[in-house]
Amino acid sequence: MTPDTAPAPPAGRSTGAVGVRATARVTAAARAGATVLPVLDGDGPFEFRRLRSRDTEARVCVVGAMSAPLGGDRLRIEATALQGASLHITSAAATLALRGPTTAHATYDVHLTVADHAEIRWLPKPLISAAGSNLRQAWTIDLAPTARLVLREEQVLGRMGEPPGHVATRLTVRRGGHVLLDQEAEYGPGAPGWDTPAVLGHHRATGQILLIEPDFDESPLEPQVLIETPDDAQAVLTPLAGPAALITAIAPDGFRLRRILNAAYATSADTSNRARQ
């Protein structure tokens, strides 16, 4: 394809090596027995919508205002729960990583900060890594010693009937200034061994739920394996050093991935609720 016949980039986007640069921010604060949102600033492809509160929890939905992330984009969400606040963040739809007008990789960073006796529940829809895309996604989480966290992240490798794009992820969690978890994963073309039996095999969806609960110090979760069938979906719950547990799952597709993650989370939530009582 010659430059004269190449498709034009989407409206409003840069044609240079770097596409959209955007940082969206939300801050939750405890006030009069409820959680309010003194900061709710969307940017670029991220628009925030307030949802109906539940008990003392403020709820926010991330709505996509444009196709993102595309190659060259530099995107970031910063969410902070101040002392005593409870914040739930979800998304209106799956995030679709696409190739875009440049071959440069895209970045999508999420930084969560949770103060003492505060909680963030980060529960968005999955990331779909479309053919030709190249995304680096990172979560950086800073927790106070009495903070709580529920974080779910899911990757679906390729849309129906197409090969996957390339996605590299990193999750770094610090609690009280000390590293609790630091892990990296890489899938798709160029990632060594990602489709071998040692990693995903024939599966094309993977995800995890991270649970941080101070009461786990006294009542830690027990290791557990959930298998629908080896060809369908598998998940394992692993206690971590510190008051935390990690549920990791693989499945042939996003639907079955969500189903087994939900089943594993329901089991862990029952145990967590009993620990709080």
UniProtKB/TrEMBL annotation:
Localization annotation: Cytoplasm
Domain of life: Bacteria
Keywords of the record: Chaperone, Cytoplasm, Nickel insertion
Record Pfam families: UreD (PF01774)
InterPro entries according to UniProt: UreD (IPR002669)
HAMAP family: UreD
Family, as annotated: Belongs to the UreD family.
Subunit structure: UreD, UreF and UreG form a complex that acts as a GTP-hydrolysis-dependent molecular chaperone, activating the urease apoprotein by helping to assemble the nickel containing metallocenter of UreC. The UreE protein probably delivers the nickel.
Task of the protein: Required for maturation of urease via the functional incorporation of the urease nickel metallocenter.
UniProt-recorded name of the protein: Urease accessory protein UreD
